[in-house]
Predict the structure.
Amino acid sequence: MNTTRQRRTLTLMLAAAMTIMVVATTSAWAKDYYVTPAGVGDKTGADWDNAMDRHAMVILLGESIQPGDRMLLGSGEYGLIGHRATKTISIPRGGTPELPITLEGVDTGEGLPHIFGKYSVNNVKYHAHSYSGISLGEGVSHVRIAHLRLSQYMSGITNGGKNAHIEIEDVHIEQVREGVVLEGLSESSFRHCTIKSYAKRGMGFEAGCDNLQIIDVEADCTAGVGGWKTEAFPFGFCIESESSNHHIRFERCVARNNLWQGPDNKYWNGDGFTAESKAHHISYYDCAAYNNTDGGWDNKSLASVMERCVSVGNKRNIRIWNSHGGADQPTRLTDCLSVNPVKRGGNSNSLALWVTGTVEVEMSTFVGGESTAIQVDDHAPGGNLTLRNCIVTSQHESPVLVNHGAKYDPVDVATDAPQFEAPSPDWLGEPAGAYNSKRYGKAKGYHAE
């Protein structure tokens, strides 16, 4: 018996040793490639003194990149517009868990590298547009992309599907139709990114997007630039209606200035965060929506979660449908703040909270609205709103409007003067405690530390 155990132990040790040898050997083959816009020295990419140029980089990534390789881009302007029309940085093969492929910018003295193409916001059907800045091929996994700037593309980043373990960090995208368009992406993350001056969507989740973390990402449609042209219905973060879109977590994300002006007698759209009805297990933590034409949130997904979220200056600051969620699958809001909704035009009224479906809210504050702060509607299957230890205030007689067929259950809800610390119609997040209640402290409503 001892001999058998010894043989098994030896077999396991040999297998482990072989694995280590394979990884070590593969690591030895992995290379760092150095890139500058025009290249320098012998242009082999062996070091900064012999950096390859941007066109050689595109070819190498597309044809011969290997697991563990790192493509390091120095500061400068990487215009990828050539005689073969517009170019995309295509990554057709991936790495491994131990040896990811890396595309990374390095500030060599003049800031993060800037990769740009050709795009006109005034002619979205123009045939010579650059399609995407960076494109991941189908099935590509274990790739890290970091410390880059992208601009003037139809889409900043796209993927081919069946992708996993993709890490995007500190990437800044602007002047595009859409910042990021995803389909078939799992177990991946976006961190510390900005998407500004887009015409349609900051981030679009088409189908098959699951187990994603979107952390510290800002989507700013107009970037405060007057006259920036948007298409109808611009969105900051848009999850489409597919059951394969699930377990997507947003933390400390901001959506702002998704603005669109329609005919006076029509509904003007433009939302910060949207999630359509078949999506599920969507969560938002410490997120904020500012100054969007319609919803700060327009959330139709099943049984989502919002905690410590803030919505200000949108027509309907928070709009929750949850049409498929029954009593056992409510959408839950905890410690959220919705104040100063603003109607910019079109039909329909401004609200701090609009609800249909089953929604449960705790320790949250709702302020303002054209005719009421909260509206509970009777859209199928009918609104069912429960508020616990919340603050609801409005300049109108009734702060909550419950339409026929809907239900409203207030539990310890305060509707009288809460004595906020520093309320203002111009408040956009600072000071953080402006809407803390001096009267109720931490016992009721939203409270910022």
User: Anything to note?
Assistant: The chain has one domain: 36-411. Residues 17-26 have pLDDT under 50 and may be disordered. The first helix runs from residue 2 to 29.
